[in-house]
Design brief:
Chain B: One of its GO terms (molecular function) is DNA-directed RNA polymerase activity. Chain B: Pfam families: DNA_primase_S. Chain B: One of its GO terms (cellular component) is alpha DNA polymerase:primase complex. The complex is a heterodimer of chains A (about 500) and B (about 500). Chain A has helices at about 50-75, 80-90, 105-125, 125-145, 150-160, 170-175, 175-185, 205, 225-245, 255-265, 290-295, 300-310, 315-330, 335-345, 350-365, 370-375, 385-390, 400-405, 405-415, 420-435, 435-450, 450-460, 475-485, 490-500; strands at about 165, 195-200, 210-215, 215-220. Chain A is an all-alpha fold and about 500 residues long. Mean pLDDT of chain A is about 80; it is low at about 270-275 and about 490-500. Among the domains of chain B are: about 1-100 and about 430-500, no CATH class; about 275-385, no CATH class. The model of chain B is unreliable at about 1-80 and about 495-500 (pLDDT under 50). Chain B is elongated, with a radius of gyration of 26 Å. Chain B has 18 helices and 9 strands. In chain B, strand 6 and strand 7 (about 245-250) form a beta hairpin. In chain B, about 50% of the residues lie in helices and about 10% in strands. Classes of the chains: A mainly alpha (about 500), B alpha+beta (about 500). The interface between A and B is large, with 42 and 43 residues.
Chain lengths: ~500, ~500
């Protein structure tokens, strides 16, 4: 692939017909070739495919992407993700290397190419879909780049022709100490090459302090090249998605493709898009009752509750995480204001009204901009959000204890809430070490509710689907509350459970 | 008092201005003699600072407790009835006479003639009664000034430049057309984040000892932004009470998207983890060049400003925290024994004990000296490395308090900090709005025996201790404008050549 000026018409698209015959001529395109296994998806496909292929290829790719996203929700490491995805990729989206003697190379690559562009159409419509699509596509690209052989990877990177400036010998000597501190390699092995780029090109390397910076230039060791290529991939994809979104209204399509595209994007629902909960039936959810209910809370919320009771205060993100959770379990705005007011008992009414009242009302969509009010405020945080965003800083109590506590503090907190079984604590420790924070939380849940779970399973009250892994604090509460009140439930509650 | 009516006063404001002025002398009668001296000491001479510091400590607490007795320190303590810093009339005089509107405009506009950089910029006002008014914008400095004088906000904040005029945002057909384009890269350092390591003060209180944390933070962040990222126009501003803000104004910094801001923030952030996460510094070895450079800068401060001045491990509880950060169990045991036998041992000696005991075999047999050294480096970082409020830096559309506004609690003006004289900056010696009003009144006294016409040429802020700060701001803005202008000329020249081709 040649690097070309953006303003120039793609040679492949160039009109080869006499302009006078243009409107009658069949458009002719150069046959797309796939010299490399990987693709930057720069040129859209132009050949004809059947409608069935159109749909089937898109669905196959969607399966892969959805599973990839699920992996990231489960917090799999790259290696685990690769292992998990391998059979799926082979089934739905195989992509063999040049060195393999597969006869279907071209067909495989064509499918990969076309399905990418079909999904691009399906997911360009909203900001949220674009962001998620770009994220999972990047993950897929990274995965494939990592499993490429070194030779093919280098050939592919060469073919991209990105303008990276190699670091000259004298400069390398000048910064020898600094460079070797960032290369991360042991003394014996010599780093082969360094490239100098604007630091903006490699923001993730800068963020992780994995490159040496001087005067706005990042010195990237050659082993970080894949990460740069990935960043470039994301950048171009994001831009292309923007453009696609703008072009979509002009698609002006008949009823063949649009329904398929709509259907596709609807199937790509976010597991954490929102937790629309109503009050759990039978529970008295009032400010006064929170202390009683808190035994059903997941550890993160129990910790917030304890900190709140201990200090009569929570910092900003703690209040946010906790008040949204309480909103999710069905505490209404008035009760919520009462709850926060009484909890912050060391401050005056005036201070409360001035500094804290607004945030609580904002969370319920009572104040704030138009979109906030229309949306009824923010939705309760999912585990994903709690794990990934805003890690707690000094003096803050929010976040996920399984992730953000050290082991001693986590163990002592667990013991305080009544989990002291050695095997459970050991399991939590291993989960934490393997960064499987969900597993740890679900393990604790299963321990705390082991009797009720057994009963529920034996009596077939809850189906397996209703007992899948918990990935939302509000789900934790809901399930915990229902399980603990199994005995008390009357028929009305059973009906309720069918629906949830 | 002819001088008290500033030339800009328009007629409708006359009455109120005179009211203020009528108040001011009455106040001076009580206390003028004594406090002029103090004011002078505060700003000009260093020896006075130490003496002043103790008084100021008391004073700050008093403000917080809203104590009504202030006879003792009449100079700068706000008098609850007449001279509250947030009093609208005080604010009016301040905005009218002291606030450097012109330079603020040039700073945000990057050129002498009004552009969208200023016109589409969001200003958010905190009005009387804690009403918060967002999405204000103004085509020129005069109109901004006029509106500020009309509304008399107790403070105002600066947001990003938007794609369209923020006032018109609701008239747009689709809301996605209204989005932030550019804003200075900002940093916020706040002493409350140091509460678990400072021993002298807590919460909103500060003194010159804990201010050293801010001094170190500025040094480390400033050098990283300049050397590593190549930014040139960095202004540090005292936040009025207990922290400092940085405004990185280079064009390249202003136009960064959220991702880039996040990555700079992540690059600079070292202290991570909440109250429960135990060890807060987890960095790779070998140390990244930024970290080894920071360690070199911070090491002397650690000795002087932390070990000696703060004595952070005086209590056995806090010493226990130190031990929890050290890797060798046997060594910890012998250290604990030693410290228990001599209560009250200074932190400096405790720090030295670690090495001396390790050398004399107090540790376990196969003591890992490398791990011990690493742990000691981590401890130095935990006790000195800047603790940034990182959210401020991550978002393009975060609002930050404007320089030169008055902090409503302390009455202090948020003045820029000259980094060339960073060590000399005294947060407790920063002019207060009340002090400025007195200075301008007493300046009249000097004027009576001096030349009358000279007074006319001087701006009001030039007659007060605000002068050096405004002058520093001016030179900063001029340098910024010069850099913004140059590339344009260059581009024109290049285009000219291209035409000839």
């Amino acid at each position: 692939m040649l690097r070309q000026d953006i303003n120039r018409i793609d040679p492949k698209r160039r009109n080869v017909v006499d302009y006078r015959k243009k409107q009658f001529a069949e458009p002719t395109y150069k046959e797309t070739e796939y010299p490399h296994r990987l693709n930057f998806y720069e040129t859209p496909p132009t050949a004809d495919i059947t409608l069935e292929q159109f749909e089937q290829w898109a669905i196959d790719r969607l399966r892969v992407l959805a599973e990839l996203e699920a992996c990231s929700f489960r917090n799999y490491s790259p290696a685990e993700t690769a292992a998990h995805m391998k059979p799926l990729l082979e089934k739905y989206l195989p992509l063999d290397s040049n060195s393999s003697s597969s006869t279907k190379l071209s067909a495989e690559r064509q499918k990969d190419h076309y399905s990418h562009f079909i999904l691009r159409l399906a997911f360009a419509s909203t900001e949220d879909l674009r962001r998620r699509f770009s994220r999972v596509e990047t993950t897929l690209f990274r995965l494939r780049l990592a499993e490429d052989t070194a030779r093919e990877r280098n050939a592919f990177i060469q073919s991209l022709n990105l303008d990276w400036e190699p670091v000259a010998e004298d400069e390398r000597n000048k910064y020898f100490a600094e460079l070797s501190a960032t290369s991360g390699s042991r003394k014996g092995e010599e780093e082969t090459a360094w490239y100098k780029v604007d630091w903006e090109r490699v923001p993730d390397l800068v963020e992780a302090r994995r490159v040496f910076l001087r005067a706005g230039k990042a010195y990237v060791p050659s082993k970080e090249l894949p990460s740069m290529v990935t960043a470039e991939f994301t950048k171009r994809l994001d831009r292309a998605l923007e453009l696609t979104a703008r072009a979509l209204p002009r698609l002006d399509e008949d009823d063949r493709l649009t329904p398929i595209l709509d259907h596709l994007s609807k199937n790509f629902v976010t597991p954490d898009a929102g937790y629309f909960s109503s009050a759990v039936a039978g529970a008295e959810i009032t400010a006064r009752n929170i202390d009683n209910l808190s035994s059903h809370f997941p550890l993160c919320m129990q910790h917030l509750h304890r900190s709140l009771r201990r200090d009569a205060h929570l910092k900003h993100y703690g209040r946010l995480q906790y008040s949204l959770f309480l909103k999710g379990i069905g505490l209404n705005l008035e009760e919520s204001l009462i709850f926060w007011r009484t909890s912050f008992h060391k401050i005056t009414d005036d201070t409360f009204n001035k500094e804290y009242r607004y945030q609580v009302r904002y969370a319920y969509g009572d104040v704030g901009g138009d979109s906030n009010r229309r949306g009824g405020g923010s939705s309760p945080f999912s585990c994903q959000k709690i794990l990934m965003e805003h890690p707690p800083g000094p003096g803050e109590a929010h976040g996920c204890p399984y992730r953000h506590f050290n082991l001693e503090n986590l163990t002592s907190l667990l013991q305080q809430v009544g989990v002291s079984d050695r095997s459970v604590l050991q399991g939590v420790k291993e989960d934490k070490e393997n960064q499987k924070f969900h597993m740890a939380c679900n393990r604790v849940f299963e321990y705390v509710h082991k009797n009720e779970l057994k009963k529920a399973k034996d009596e077939g009250i809850m189906t397996a689907a209703e007992l899948e892994t918990i990935v939302h604090p509000n789900k934790y509460f809901e399930r915990s509350y229902l399980l603990k009140n199994l005995g008390k439930s009357n028929n009305g509650d059973d009906v309720k459970m069918e629906g949830f | 008092m002819p001088h008290s009516i500033s030339p800009e006063t328009d007629n409708q404001n006359m009455d109120t201005v005179e009211e203020t002025m009528a108040d001011a002398p009455a106040k001076n009668d009580e206390s003028q003699e004594g406090d002029n001296d103090i004011t002078m000491e505060e700003t000009n001479t260093l020896p006075g600072v130490v003496k002043e510091e103790e008084k100021m400590d008391v004073k700050l607490e008093e403000i917080l407790a809203a104590a009504d007795s202030d006879d003792e320190f009449p100079s700068s303590a706000p008098e609850p009835v007449r001279m509250n810093a947030a009093d609208p009339e005080v604010m009016r005089t301040f905005y009218q006479r002291f606030f450097p509107w012109r330079y603020l405009f040039q700073w945000l506009n990057h050129s002498p003639t009004p552009t969208n950089d200023f016109g589409h910029r969001e200003f958010a006002f905190t009005l009387q009664g804690d009403i918060y008014s967002r999405y204000n914008s103004f085509p020129s400095a005069d109109l901004l000034r006029k509106d500020v004088l009309r509304l008399l906000p107790s403070r105002f904040e600066i947001g990003p430049v938007y794609t369209t005029n923020p006032r018109d945002r609701k008239t747009l057909r689709n809301s996605s057309a209204f989005k932030p384009l550019s804003k200075e890269l900002c940093f916020d350092i706040d002493l409350t984040d140091y509460d678990d390591i400072r021993t002298c003060c807590d919460k909103a209180n500060i003194c010159n000892r804990c201010w050293q944390f801010i001094t170190m933070a500025i040094k480390v962040v400033d050098v990283a932004l300049r050397e590593d990222f190549g930014f040139k126009h960095i202004m540090w501003v005292y936040s009025g009470r207990r922290g400092a803000h940085a405004w990185v104004c280079d064009k390249k910094a202003r136009t960064m998207d959220d991702q880039k801001r996040r990555s700079i923030a992540g690059y600079l952030e070292v202290i991570r983890g909440g109250a429960q996460s135990g060890k807060k510094v987890n960095v790779w070895r070998p140390l990244h060049p930024h970290l080894s450079r920071s360690l070199n800068i911070l090491a002397p401060h650690f000795q002087e400003d932390v070990l000696e001045a703060q004595d952070p491990w005086a209590s056995s509880e806090r010493a226990e925290h130190l031990l929890s950060l050290l890797p060798d169990k046997a060594l910890n045991e012998s250290l604990r024994k030693k410290w228990d036998s001599s209560p009250g041992r200074a932190s400096t000696s405790k720090w030295a004990d670690i090495d001396s005991l390790a050398r004399s075999g107090g540790g376990s047999k196969n003591l890992d000296t490398k791990a011990l050294l690493d742990a000691k480096q981590d401890i130095v970082l935990e006790y000195t490395y800047p603790r940034l409020d990182i959210e401020v830096s991550k978002k393009l559309n975060h609002l930050l308090k404007s320089p030169f506004v008055v902090h409503p609690g302390t009455g202090r003006v948020c003045v820029p900090i000259d980094t060339r004289k960073l060590e000399d900056f005294d947060p407790l010696g920063v002019p207060t709005v009340q002090g400025l009003l007195e200075e301008i009144d007493s300046w009249k006294g000097d004027d009576e025996d001096g030349s009358e016409d000279k007074a006319k040429n001087l701006q009001d802020w030039e007659k007060t201790s605000l002068r050096p700060y405004v002058e520093y701001f001016r030179s900063f803005v001029l340098a910024l404008m010069k850099d913004e202008r140059d590339p344009k000329i260059k581009r024109e020249r290049e285009e000219g050549q291209a035409m000839e081709f």
